[in-house]
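A favour, since you know our structure tokens better than I do. Would you make up a two-line entry for one protein for me to read? Write everything out right here, beneath this request.
=====
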Amino acid sequence: MATLVFFHAHPDDEAIATGGTMAKMAADGHRVILVTATRGELGEVPEGFLSPGETLAERRTAELAAACAVLGVARHEFLDYGDSGMVGEPTNNDPGCFWQADVDEAAKRLSDILQSEKADVLTAYDENGNYGHPDHIQVHRVGLRAGEMAGVPRVFMATVNRDYLKRLTETAEGAALLVASEEERPAIDNLGVGEERITTAVDVSAFLDRKRRAMEAHASQISETSFFLSMPPEAFADVWGQEWYVRVGARPTQPFESTLLAGEPR
């Protein structure tokens, strides 16, 4: 049995980026740990969604607990930094936010968890945090540094295969991607990395029901009419049926590695 630690920025990121892999590894009998840097208290929420006196941080904490149950997470920890907000917002300068955290100090918090769990695998994000959010970029920096500190043998950057998505939008099935509004739909040119950098593609098609249920658990952020959940089942499977990674220190090969436990430890 292996121990895998998935490091994410906010509640809901785990479901979107690595939920299928987490569910798959848990179902295969491995120990799945989730570490979340912030409670996502600066996320947007529909008016009237929260109960009287309830904070968004409280709601998102409860939503994350529900998603963890769906995905088979054995242990979850918050690093409890403040949410930094979207790029360019004044909250990026808050001294308590994750974006402003000292990388080595934050990495030590994560490294302590990695060492206590004797982690075999750690996932963070690519250098641009998949789409440029300050907290996601900081997950990359802190995650890779923590992996070094703890001597984790396999470290991955969870990412998006930009070229795959571009090809998908050129098909009839991919037209469902265009259903979302211009404001909500991600700009594909700014997502993830080119296919030439991908080392690992995990087929999670058998776990899409759990991935979707984990997304649905984050109802304050992911509504049924959102880009993520509004596409028909066939398009949902095309978009989310594989989860993509870059293994740190590995050279890309064809075919891609199909599991986070493949290859020689570094």
In short: The radius of gyration is 17 Å. The mean pLDDT is 93.
